[in-house]
Design a protein that fits this description.
single chain; 81 residues; alpha+beta; 3-stranded antiparallel beta sheet; 53% helix; elongated
Amino acid sequence: MPMHLLHILGLSVLPLCVTGLADIERVARLQTAGLVTATLPKWRDSCRAVWATVHSITPRGYRALGRFKLAEAANASSLEA
């Protein structure tokens, strides 16, 4: 899961346009997992959109984000020990 992108989205004002093929693919994976709602580009030979729009983080996405933050805090505290 592209949890880092989900974390960034959680800190952002939505809706947000995401550019770059790698980030668009991450948004597509987050949407497939049910973590965000987004409008993805329709790929056609004659026209390639260069952005996706993330509209919202779903309740499932916020739950996943909470687990991500807990894991991040646990890793940080284990490094301090």
